Amino acid sequence: MSAVPFLALILAACGATSALEPGGEHADAAAEELSSAPASEPTGDPPRAASSERAEGSAPVGSGERRGPSDFSEIELARILRHSPLPPRPPDPTNRWADDPRAARLGQALFFDARLSANGEIACATCHRPELDLTDGKALFEGLGVGERRTPPLWNLAWSRWLLWDGRVDSLWAQAVQPLENPIEMGGDRLAAAHLIASDPDLRAAYNELFGALPDLADGARFPEHARPVAGRPDDPHDVAWRAMEAADREAIDSLLVHLTKSIAAYERLLVSTDAPFDRFVAGLRDGDPEKLAALSARERRGLKLFVGKARCRMCHVGPNFTDNEFHNLSLPTADGGLPRDAGRYEGSRLLRADPLNAAGKFSDAPKGAAAERLGALVVGSETWGEFKTPSLRNVARRGPLMHRGQFTDLAEVIGFYSTLEGQSRLHGHRETVLVALELSEQEQADLRAFLGSLSGASLPETLLGPPTLPRAGQ
Amino acid sequence: MRLSLEFLVALPLVCSSVLPATLRPAAVAPEVTSLISNDGTYFLTYASEPAVVPLNEVFAVEVSVFTDEKRREPAVAVELAFDARMPQHGHGMRREPRVQRLGDGRFRVEGVLLHMPGYWELYFDATRGALTERAQDSLVVD
Asked: Is the ipTM of this complex over 0.90?
């Protein structure tokens, strides 16, 4: 059976588009709503294929006719359906506490606890501010110093196979170690974190309940106040102190640290965004409910049509999380107009492979599992130089600046860049060669912005947006 | 596998409750594709698992290599390498698939990941001694 008529048959059989066809009650409203829409644009610019079937597949299937001035072709509908709903949260076998609510509560407490930082003033939530959509509203992150990249959004990271802009970690729990010990972020260290847990009765009780008794840290000679490994800097006092410790004590502290970050990961797995107007619209496409279909305005629908077609956004922003979870070089403008200096994924891959906290390492709860296999199969090559992770577009309209260095203030600037590629940095390695100026009209840019605004989901429950109340010690 | 309209996979979400079982995508028979290596030495067949190649999800490819056009004589002495690239993008996969030799000229390629929608070329390199011959195919993942 040929795939194309098969598709048409399925669409016809299940009535997926019935709500968009003329004649229905909602169709009248939709037609009225869409009456101001511009003439339909080309479906998109799909690449030519070698197979003859592709040539058929690139055009709308079925009757080949559009049902309205801004209606969707069946190809577009099929693409749209793939963006919603968000599937169930995938398990994380590398973290046996990933879905333990007690771990999430402890992790939430740690997420909002500034005592983990060197100066006692910076928590995870300092940069991932709940009132700013879990970012900080800055182009470059600011902790104890100023970074060279933007604070990444935290939404829906449970679906990510790589973390951070350069993918240098492959789990949420390994990620949480990075800002904790980065000297220009929180500047903390694992010994100080261990002593904090030991000295706080509530944190200690929560820890003990999940992970068993803490090691006895009372002997300051064995467990100094501050210590952590510092790669490549053997004179760093923290590294000197770390190397002076017994191997067994270092391992005990590493385990404790990983317990803490696995708890933070359990909390971060709850930072889920779904149920955006776009999701309701797609649900309407599935069941024909007019109220759901009304979740998107005419302008947003036009933007959606661009998103899956001419604007080619889905080339990277695919799937229900609007990301391919991979890395790309968009030749974005540099700060000084010169050559880009940030190696991105090229360096991130190297760091990931060397990280003892990666999915194949001894602190992983599934060192031979799928994540470890994925790590082992990772392709590392010079073509990854300057690539950065595709971020999810969920809630993107609620935050800014955008891109990995905060190069653009808002979505208008991002779309403007894709439209003209003005300011594009010079070639310095592999880049997406299909990246060409979209030449979107002002209205098209506004439509696309409007659609991206429809990806903003409901707010998180208040109970997740601040430090939780831990059970009192001894109760 | 030649035609990869990946949305066929998504369609059960749309209408699995209303379609008779015979019309559901799961009923699509695995498609076996035949290829000939560029110097005409090897005759290959391959099929993906699942039959419809998914976008940005890991899948497997079963490959058989023969020495005759009727594909009855397995090429027992060859090794196989597999790769996939997006020539229009200038890059390939971000995950290196693993080729397992099954014997009798049969191979199973695990861990194939086509992470972007668009035009992909598939390369099957059969090597015997110092001689490698390539067979290739293309598909569009959408």
From this structure: no
